[in-house]
Amino acid sequence: MSQPGLTEKPEWKALIDHQASLSGTHMRDLFEQDPGRFEHFFANAAGISLDYSKNLLTRETMPHLMALARACEIPEQIQAMFRGDNINTSEKRPALHVALRNLGDDPITVEGTDIMPEVRSTLGRMEEFVWRIRSTQWRGFTNKPFTDVVSIGIGGSFLGPKLVSAALKPYWHGRLNCHYVANIDGSHITEVLRHINPETTLFLIQSKSFRTQETLENTKVAREWFLHNGGDEALISKHFVAVTANEKEAIDFGIAEENIFPMWDWVGGRYSLWSAIGLPTALTIGMENFRSLLSGANAMDQHFREAPLEENLPVIMALLGIWYGNFWGADAHAILPYDHYLRGLPAHLQQLDMESNGKCVTRAGQPVNYDTGPIIWGGAGANGQHAYHQLLHQGTRMSPADFIIPLRTHNPVGSHHAILFANCLSQTQALMRGKSLDEARAELRDQGLDADAIETLAPHKVIPGNKPTNTILFERSTPRTVGALVALYEHKTFVQGAIWDVDSFDQWGVELGKQLGTDILDRLLKSGNGKKTDSSTDGLIDLFRRKHRDDA
Ligand SMILES: O=P(O)(O)OC[C@H]1O[C@H](O)[C@H](O)[C@@H](O)[C@@H]1O
Q1: Mind listing the pLDDT tens digit for each residue in 399-415?
Q2: Ligand 1 pocket, 212 CB below 6 A?
Q3: Which of 83, 114, 169, 182 has the highest local Cβ count within 10 Å?
Q4: pTM
């Protein structure tokens, strides 16, 4: 008998009924009825604390969600991931980013081979390379120490390292500055090259496939810039290093073999910041701090692997997302880091979550009949309060939000951190409790408005409340806590994909755009008309060609 589909499971149907039983329930009342609510819906692990009491749930809800997780064999699927099973089913590969931070001695095998020796030797090569650059033992072609690192890569070869190096800015080496180039928009690389000196710049070419058009085109520009500004072919090896799983293409491209750091097929791009793709981070914060980053992630890995589901932070967060996305009709989820250094977190989690779970067929290739990955958005708090929090408070759409804030700051100026913290708490409290019509009326009465004015304005000042949020806390943005935080979201994403029965580790959806782009590029650049397609694309190509013909 075939495995019942997700929505056929009795645990799924029980959640539909449970959600119906909560309609009309307001979190404000749940807090008043349950003085121990905060303590009950609070969990911590690996230096990360989660207050999930400001959610649309009663003490009966999590047991229902946990029952669904067990019905979907989440404990077994967690073990399968750590064991190195081919959980990337469509590409028949393991997903072993956890191996990159497996600091113990236990082996992890892929196709019968223990991969840990190569992981460890690559980490050792990184350590030596980082030391040689930071100690100035490895210098530029005019024998000056390097001052700038330019990382050229896109997607997972960009967003993860960029997030972590920005998150750990307080740990940066005094001399080394790090820049990222990703976009094929020539302005991106132009704006970086404008401010650096070829004599003291190290280029890191970051590409798992070494076939990504944006990265290869940008690398060509960087190489030409280097050759036209004092460099020559013999000096390329001093200034260009690559990280890739495709060593042959990198060598064919002109990267010296000894300057190539490996990565592996069993690491997805969006899960690769822990590998040599993390070199920009390691160069700026140093290997000791990079190893702390790995150990923070490893601590979260161990928690995820060993903790009972009910105490398991990634499982709890994953199930809350399922609760809102599949039973309350939420299409989005906001990531709101109240920490300037973590402002890059939403962008990284957009790729991590949306490229992993933005899928519409099950691992068996059957169309899903339920919603899968949400739209991930967000930005730094408190800035967002002055931009998009209006929709969170009074909009018609539900977007659960994660408020993420350190208890301490790296930069104690004035009362700033207390004010930031107060803002974070006041936002989640306002989203939870709202403001009733009577409260709005009373407020306007206290301001001295007359009865007509009150009745006119009061409806506009009502805040419905009952908007779910998580508050995620940690001591401070350190290598360990940043490592644990990112790993927390990696495992949350994995659990959601496992429940939705999708392959969270492939990304076939990005292929069509690339394929269509080849023909369009030909038609933009060449005189030939190429085959006609739709009138929009044809018309737009024509506009581009006319503009550039006029310019020619
Ligand atoms: O690292 P690369 O092979 O250059 O790939 C860079 C990015 O492009 C691909 O199209 C995928 O969308 C991403 O998952 C990947 O991280």
Answers
A1: 999 999 999 999 999 99
A2: yes
A3: 182
A4: 0.97
